[in-house]
Structures are given as C-alpha cells and as structure tokens.
Amino acid sequence: MRKREHLPQIKLSDFQKKKLTEQIQAFYLDERGEEIGMIEQMQLLELFEQHMAPIIYNKALDDAKRWYAQMMDNAEADYYALYKNE
Fold this sequence. Notes:
This protein is mainly α.
C-alpha cells in the first residue's frame, strides 16, 4: 500500500478568518460581557486552526467513510433484491 502524503495544515481564507474573528468577538461580548481585542481574536483563531481544525476534519472524514460504507451496504442489499427466483 502506498504511504499517504502528510496533509498541510488547514488554512482559512482571509474572508473566513474575518467572519470567525467577528464571531469570536460577538461570543465574548454576548456570553461573557467582555470586549476582546483583535490580537486576542487572532490568537484564539490560530489556536483553533492548529489544534481543533485537524480533529474536526478527521471526524468529518470518519463520518463520511461511515456514510459511504452504509450506502455501499444498501447498494449490495438492493443488488441482491433484484435476483429472481429460479
């Protein structure tokens, strides 16, 4: 089996970063009643990017694999349902 290449770190677009930092700022204000500066927003976002994003990405891959396996099981059952009595 061929060795898989190491995937690069997940990187967000500038637009995605802007939206997420706005959400971080809103969360702190709504939930904690605190103002959070741009530097702190970016630091939190970088923390999430480096540590949480790979975990969430891998979870999504696992979920997709399970879904695909279930669809293949269904396809196999559908295939055998087409058999005629001899």
